[in-house]
Predict the 3D structure of the following.
Amino acid sequence: MCLYLGLMSGTSVDAIDVALVEFSTSNKVIVHATHSHPWPLPLREAFLSMSQHTRGQSSLHEVATLDVQAGELFAQATLTLLEKSQIPRTKIKAIGSPGQTLYHHPDGHPPYTWQLGDPNVIAQLTGIPTVADFRRRDMAAGGQGAPLTPAFHAAMWRNTLENRIVLNIGGIANITVLPANPQLPVIGFDTGPGNALLDAHAFQHLHTRRDENGNWAARGQVQSSLLTSLLTDPYFTRLAPKSTGRDYFNLTWLNQHLSSLSSPPSPVDIQTTLGQLTIDSIAQAVLPYTPQRLLVCGGGVHNPLLMAGLAKGLPECVVESIQSYGIDPDWVEAVSFAWFAKQRLEHQTSNLPSVTGARQAVVLGAIYL
């Protein structure tokens, strides 16, 4: 068996997903075990505060400390999965860890991206070779460093019979455009907020990590003036390649728009409007590519409000969970980074210049033995 572990902690910072994956010679993927490891609340709050509220004042000491703590947590999540699955660590060829993105500024001068979760710590505590730091090599080649998962989506789900789009609704939503015509390039980019604003606003008012199943948002009304203001953000009309993060779309960003209104909406109406923002910004990004099928993965697939809104906003497209296509929608991202680790060990390129805007395809990731 060719076993790899993939880690994923997205922009929602709710849990670390770990997937134990086997890759066969026929490019078949078998997920043998999974584990979702929650972020301790104090560590989560420290990360969120640093990424969106205090980034200008964060000290090197604070960043470096959080880097090690995140690495320890990634290692703990990995070891917990191995204990649950009863798989010896000697059977694992490598761990793929993209880290937890703290700051992502691909359009800065110079551009940079920074992920936490020290891979030295992961490799040392688990005893398993760890592949990490995937994004900066793409950025060094002139790319955005994100999204990276379209390369995996294309390898798994491109089909010559229909135009497809893979939509991942994590904290940030991103799409992978998979044209049926094999001569056309794969395109992918971040569409804007997925669950990040919904989760942050729910935490602020309900003190829960998420608005479970969109139940709170379902009780409110969309506020058109707020929605119009939010959709005027220039990010939504920028051409691809483009990528973004929680350090841009956060409560500070929301409050700037709220302050421009003559009277602020109720918290529940704000939540409903944020859900519609996610729906509208995704639909706006998807429509120009006229897909026949939208395959949805990520935490947002469990939000009936988002799924129904997308089906309504994309009437000519089948909107469905990616579950029917071989991988549980909650684990696609973690499985992707197991695949990225495999690509790195085999010295294979794994960025798509048509997605990230890089000047060339490059081998991504550094190996920590």
